[in-house]
Design a protein that fits this description.
The protein contains nine helices and 27 strands. By secondary structure, the chain is α+β, with helices and mostly antiparallel strands.
């Protein structure tokens, strides 16, 4: 069995399993709590200086824990020397979510870098804004030499808006009962778009076109600087004061926070020692009779939280952890959203971000991404997808003008052309396997 970049030998009573959460984001919106509106609780006003104790004098971790018991909490924390605990194989924190850059990431052997962007050991001061759900996993997974509380916001807990829940119910029912694939896929997109509407950035960059020159300029107002503060506040006020805007960004924040929480609950439940790979709503792991029983127990608990819907195949529930039954002979991955499965019958299925399912080229034989990859051994940083490499946008800039071609007046201006592209695979950094102690 090939897993990642190493070979793993399984015993006779172990196999590779692949499970997905059913309608993960809509399920979180149906089953979990959401904030009603945040208010400011605490903030360090002046620039903080790291002292030897690195302890808050006016707001303690004990007070923070008390708020997290029954409130939605957004907290900005500074950590001194974060280090992943030894038995954790699925790190929670990503460098992409840190609020500063003046720290050094290392592995246990002192080599600089991360594990696919996840933090193993951060030397220095590193800042994160977390929810109370994120805070649970940071405490479980990491050791630190000190924590400084910089900012705290709290909100009462309520449910996702009932009007939107009714739309989720409608789309979920069609998705689970519709037999026409194209219509079902469209409804599935609508179902997932409810989350998408809550996660759309309110502070988007302004893209401006100069009609005289045909040139585009971008004003990236989302960067929180003193110059942009007034512009940011203006955009926020305009959004929330408009009667046409009814989606709150905090709903998107808590949809993903609950989704991560459920994902890591299952990773921990099946056992870090069995974990192979996970993304937003799925986990690949070494299955045993014991951890399969744990999943069954989890699903029974989820079913008690919702009534589900009746279908021809039986009752279907929100949020259950479903066995994909891929019949996996070999599994290999390079990094997130880049993996291949070789099934017992020899067929191949792959998932790679930026690689299309087939080439869709007119006048050529249809080539799927599996056909182009050929075999699981080819999944490496030396492989390039040409036929299924995807597309890219090519922008041209031209001052608007009227030209005459063969007696025809044609208006010419700036344009965007969609071109075929290639996809070179890459191996995101992985640490060497640690030697047994």
């Amino acid at each position: 069995m090939e897993i990642g970049l190493c070979q793993v030998k399984l015993s006779s009573n172990e196999w590779i399993a692949h499970f997905d959460f059913k309608s993960h984001y809509p399920s979180r919106q149906k089953l979990n709590y959401f904030p009603t509106g945040f208010k400011h609780m605490y903030e360090i006003k002046e620039d903080f200086n790291v002292n030897d104790s690195f302890v808050n004098e006016t707001f303690s971790l004990k007070e923070l824990e008390y708020l997290c018991n029954d409130k939605c909490v957004l907290m900005t924390l500074a950590f001194k020397n974060l280090k992943l605990k030894r038995n954790v194989t699925a790190p929670y924190l990503s460098v992409s979510h840190s609020l500063n850059t003046n720290y050094i990431c290392r592995n246990e052997k002192g080599v600089k870098g991360t594990d696919n962007g996840k933090i193993i050991d951060a030397e220095g001061i590193i800042l994160f804004t977390l929810t109370e759900l994120d805070w649970i996993w940071v405490q479980k997974q990491y050791d630190t030499d000190g924590i400084l509380i910089l900012d705290v916001w709290t909100s009462e807990r309520s449910t996702f808006p009932t009007e939107l829940q009714s739309v989720i119910d409608e789309f979920f029912y069609i998705k689970e009962t519709e037999i026409r694939k194209r219509y079902r896929d469209k409804i599935k997109n609508w179902l997932n778009s409810i989350y998408g509407m809550t996660a759309t950035d309110i502070i988007r960059a302004d893209v401006l076109l100069d009609l005289d020159t045909g040139e585009w300029t971008i004003n990236r107002a989302y960067k929180k600087t003193s110059q942009n503060k007034e512009l940011i506040n203006g955009k926020l006020n305009k959004y929330y004061n408009s009667r046409n805007n009814f989606m709150s960004y905090q709903y998107g924040v808590y949809t993903t926070a609950h989704a991560r929480n459920e994902l890591f609950k299952l990773i921990e439940e099946v056992g870090y020692q069995y974990f192979i790979y996970a993304d937003t709503d799925s986990i690949f792991f070494v299955a045993t009779e014991e951890n399969m029983k744990k999943i069954e127990k989890y699903n029974n608990a989820i079913k008690k939280l919702n009534i589900g819907i009746d279908t021809d195949k039986g009752r279907v529930y929100y949020g259950t952890f479903e066995n994909e039954k891929d019949d996996i002979k070999r599994f290999k991955f390079l990094h997130a959203k880049c993996y291949a499965i070789e099934h017992s019958d020899g067929t191949l299925s792959i998932t790679i971000a930026g690689v299309t399912k087939d080439n869709k080229q007119i006048g050529k034989a249809k080539i799927t991404r599996e056909m182009e990859l050929g075999c699981i051994e080819n999944l490496s940083d030396e492989f390039k997808f040409v036929e299924c490499g995807g597309t890219r946008a090519d922008y041209g800039f031209h001052k608007p003008e009227l030209i005459n071609i063969d007696g025809h007046d044609i208006e010419l201006a700036s344009w965007c052309t969609i071109l075929k592209s290639e996809k070179q695979l890459s191996s995101i950094e992985h640490y060497e396997e640690y030697e047994p102690e």
